[in-house]
Structure formats: structure tokens, C-alpha cells
Design a protein that fits this description.
The protein is mainly alpha-helical. About 60% of the residues lie in helices and about 5% in strands. It has helices at about 10-20, 20-30, 30-45, 50-55, 55-65, 75-85, 95, 100-110, 125-145, 150-160, 165-170, 175-185, 195-200, 215-230, 240-245, 265-275, and strands at about 245-250, 255-260. It holds the Pfam family DUF1217. InterPro entries: AGR-C-984p-like_sf, DUF1217.
Length: about 280
Amino acid sequence: MIPIAGMGASVGLTLSTATRERQMALIETGAMQSREIEAFRSRIDDIQTVDQLIADPEVYRFVMKAHDLEDQIFGKAMIRKILQSDDSEPGALINRMTDPRFEALYDGLGFTEGGTVNENTKDPAWIEGLVDRYVEQAFINDAAAQNEAVGQALTFRRDAASVRSWYDVLGNPALSRVLRGALGIPEAVAGIDLDRQVEMFAGKMDLSDLKDPREVESILRRYTALTDAKSGAAAASSAAVQLMAGAQASASGNWTPRLLDISAIDVSVLSGASAYRR
């Protein structure tokens, strides 16, 4: 993967965005990921119930990773109860979960009849959609491991359009943190009453803006710029910018900028080099 550790958030996000497709292609063909993808593709159509999913460790792990729930893999009893829930019942476990990842898992898998029926697992389009989600989540996780602000920005870009209420925003750490940063809301606000937080967000922007890709990108530009300003990663002095925009002295003593064409980056070369830079 392309190393972005130590870069400012603005530069890191720009580089990650420009190389996203090539990085995801590398992930999909990686040794571990390709084995997990093949295991999922070859066995998912045999799974019709929640019990069958839990009983297949490789497919179960794949599904959990795709929904960014790798930290919950060992909570099989809870996952079983969630997936067997009936969301039409107000007291169902799925309706009591505050972590939006569980709702995404529940909705994405689509088990019905108490977890005994699934019409998705034989649908090729659904299968490939989950493979794409797995690869994209691996891409985001790698970015986040190197540069937390970039990982949050990528998650925001992916999840923003699915928001239905301000409470969805508050329940998603990446969404809420990016918006607090972009809108100038102090981090300490995260600890106050939820209704008051909703009032503060609603007073600064319309929720519908999150469904507008142009507004989402505008929010991300503000978030990364302000994050860099707070961390001291100013563009003029950023080590990342030194990498991306070098300078060469001419005979007259003037400096001529050299700009790096991001589209020309050979991702495979940078991926290999990253092992020596971390």
C-alpha cells in the first residue's frame, strides 16, 4: 500500500483518492485477501441460515471484516441474536444496538424468518457487492492505520449518503468527528446531551447536504485543512508536500517547482517500498 504516515491530512487524502482503484486492485489480489475472497465466493451460496453462517469460520470472518466488525468476531452469540432479530419489533436486539456497524451488517445480509431464510446468498450481484465492500474496507483500514484523519475522511465519503437523521451522524464516530472538525464544533461537545448536539449540527448545515457529493467533498476539504492547521502540518512546510512538489535551482538562482503527477504513480513499486519506510 502507498505510505501516507506522517503526511498532512489534505495531501494524504488526495493521494489516497487518486490511487484508490489501483490500491484496491492490489488488495484484491493480495495473498491473504485473495484466499478469503475465494473462500467466500465458493461457499456463500450454500449458506441459508444464520447458524450456517456462524458455523463456517472463513465465511463468517469475511462477512465481519467486510462490515468493519473484525473486533467483534468472537462475539458469536451476540451476532447470532442480532441477525435472528425481527427489526419490526421495537424491543428486538437489533433495534437496541447503537453502533451503526451492526445495523449495516443486519441490513446488508438480509436474513429473515428468525435467521432461517436468506434470498441474497445465491445472487451473484449481491455476492460481488459484498466482495467490493470487503476490499474497500481493507483499503480504508490501511489508510486509517497510517493516518487517522485520512481514514476518517474516507469513511465519511463512503457513509455520508446513507445518513437518515442527525442521530445516525452521532452514532458514527467518523461522521461525527469529520463534521465537528469541518463545522468548527469543539470535540468536547461529543460529551453533552445528544439532543443539544443535534441542535448544534442542524444550526450549521442541512442534513440533506450529506447526499450531495459536491458538498461532501467541500466538507472533506474543510476538515482536512483545519486538521492540518491544528496539527501544524501546514502545506508550505509539510514533508509530504516536499515529496510531491520538489524544487530545483536554476543557474539564475530561481527555483522551479517540480510537480508529481499522481496519476503516473506505480502503486506496486510504492507498495513494496512502504515496507522499508515504516
